[in-house]
Amino acid sequence: MVSRPASDEDVYLRNDVQIAAKILVVGHFAVGKTTFIGTMSEIPPLRTEETMTQAAAHIDDLRGVHGKTTTTVAMDFGRLTLSDRLVLYLFGTPGQQRFVQVWEDMTRGALGALVLVDPDRLKESFDVIDLVEQYGLPYAISVNHFDGTPVRSDDELREALDLLPETPVVTCDARDTKSSANALITLVRYLQERAR
User: Fold this and answer.
1) I want to staple 85 with a disulfide (CB 3.0 to 4.6 A). Which of 18, 133, 173, 183 is the partner?
2) In Å, what is the CA distance from 106 to each residue of 23, 83, 137, 166, 196?
3) What is the pTM of this model?
4) Can you tell me which residues the record assigns to a coiled coil (predicted)?
5) What is the β-pairing status of strands 110-117 and 86-92?
6) 120-147: per-residue pLDDT in tens?
7) Which strands make up the sheet holding 110-117, listed edge to edge?
8) Cβ(37)–Cβ(27) below 8 Å
9) Is the pLDDT of residue 181 over 70?
10) Helix H segments across the chain?
11) How many Å apart are CA 65 and CA 116, to the nearest integer?
12) DSSP state of 120
């Protein structure tokens, strides 16, 4: 038997599962989408990060953001196998308004979205939630707690983000596998409930 080298498709896609689900990981600029996908992906994530330049300094608002030197310019991609039957393909969208045209293509075939939210910058999530709703994607909110960010109650978050009562809200730390997995599980369960 002659072995062949692994192709990119072999690394990123799995053909031995019954259900492959496309999930978007969305959120405003610098909320932790790339970190979240990197934390959750069982394969080396595909990233399209570029160094931030002075040209974008007047466009990308870095207030409340510390140590950010790169930004996603197309997408992030990762894979997570949940069982022999189900694999999640995670697609991270760019957070800046100037990349919104990428969203239309990325929403095709997506079952739902996990919306990452920074509790210090809640109002920056409005445009993202509006886009998710515009494309008709069911979604869950995951509040990404960075070091020192305020803890807000679910009721406070629901009111601030004007969420429907059935929209799941969960907290996570995008750097932590367990809490990030819990956020994804919350979204998957919500999608399953809606499918019944």
Assistant:
1) 18
2) 10, 24, 11, 25, 25
3) 0.80
4) none
5) unpaired
6) 889 999 999 999 999 999 999 999 987 7
7) 46-51, 70-81, 86-92, 19-27, 110-117, 139-144, 169-172
8) no
9) yes
10) 8-12, 33-40, 101-107, 126-134, 154-161, 177-195
11) 15
12) T
Residue the block writes with tokens 């934390």: 39
The conformational region for residue 32 under phi > 0 = left, psi -120 to 50 = alpha, else beta, is left
AA letter at 149: T
Residue 19 CA to residue 188 CA, distance in Å, equals 13
Determine whether 174 is exposed, middle or buried from the number of CB atoms within 10 Å of its CB (0-12, 13-18, 19+): buried
Report, as an integer, the average pLDDT of 34-44: 94
Q: Give the Cα separation of 38 and 174 in Å (integer).
A: 9
pLDDT at 65 over 90: no
User: Which of 19-33, 75-89, 143-157, 160-174 has maximum average pLDDT?
Assistant: 160-174
Alpha-carbon span 189 to 172, nearest angstrom = 16
The residues facing 14 across adjacent strands are none
Q: How many C-beta atoms lie closer than 10 Å to residue 188's C-beta? A: 19
Q: Is 116 helix (H, G, I), strand (E, B) or coil?
A: strand
